[in-house]
Design brief:
Number of helices: 12
Oligomer: single chain
Subcellular location: Plastid, Chloroplast inner membrane; Plastid, Chloroplast membrane
InterPro entries: Tic20
Protein name: Protein TIC 20
Organism: Digitaria exilis
Strand content: under 5%
Membrane topology: Multi-pass membrane protein
Largest sheet: none
Order of helices and strands: HHHHHHHHHHHH
Radius of gyration: 41 Å
Mean pLDDT: 75
């Protein structure tokens, strides 16, 4: 009883003060496990650990106007004269019916006369264009070599209309009209290739002729023996 009374008479211990911050401090984690939470009044912006490079701008592979020099543009444009002059005879019917084309192509008269001055001139020019330009990676850029190869392939493709003209030459009737249309189509195709290919080269852009461009991409990695043999058969 006495011990119980003495316990009642003893002063009660003072309560321990709460941590600074009120009752919310009771919910805080220990110091070593404390997690820092963002303040609700501030916008949370995560830090970028790795700086991402900006996406490259899309560029047109055919537009090389800022990288092609003027001499390369001129050489590449002149290369398209070779197949046009070699196949200009396919336009004899069209030039007879429409004298406008004759007046339009009159500035090319000296080049045509020089081209046909000798039977060996077309073949020698072919060898020069192929070995001195297409196969010469040190002296000419890829822009010049690709356009020269397109001109070479376009000239080789003239084998087919030439063989057709030699084997199928009607003198009248419906067959003659079909033959005229085919000859005029070949000439117009060569003229379009000359204007489009030469104009694009002068602007510093890479022209891709239909059918010819894919064949040029394949042939430029070969030794060209098949191309040379085909052109030699044409000149014989």
């Amino acid at each position: 009883m006495a011990s119980a009374i003495s316990l009642l008479l003893l002063p009660s211990p003072s309560p321990r003060p709460l941590p600074r911050g009120g009752a919310s401090g009771l919910l805080c984690c220990p110091r070593r496990h404390r997690v820092l939470l963002p303040s609700p009044g501030l916008a949370y912006a995560p830090r970028r650990l790795v700086a991402t490079a900006p996406a490259p701008r899309a560029s047109n592979n055919n537009d090389n106007s800022g990288a092609v020099e003027a001499p390369d543009r001129l050489v590449a444009a002149v290369a398209y004269l070779y197949p046009f002059l070699d196949g200009a005879h396919h336009g004899r019917f069209l030039l007879a019916q429409f004298p406008f084309f004759s007046d339009l192509l009159r500035p090319l008269g000296p080049a045509a006369r020089l081209f046909h001055s000798s039977p060996l001139t077309p073949f020698l020019l072919f060898l020069t264009l192929y070995f001195a330009v297409v196969r010469n990676q040190r002296a000419f850029s890829r822009f010049v070599r690709f356009n020269a190869m397109q001109a070479v392939v376009l000239d080789v493709l003239l084998i087919f209309p030439d063989l057709l003209a030699q084997s199928f030459a009607p003198s009248g009737g419906v067959g003659f009209e079909i033959f005229q249309s085919m000859e005029s189509t070949v000439f117009l195709f060569l003229l379009v290739c000359l204007v489009y290919g030469g104009g694009a080269c002068l602007l510093g852009k890479t022209p891709r002729l239909p059918i010819v461009a894919d064949a040029a991409e394949r042939q430029k990695h070969l030794n060209g023996l098949l191309v040379l043999a085909a052109n030699r058969c044409r000149s014989m």
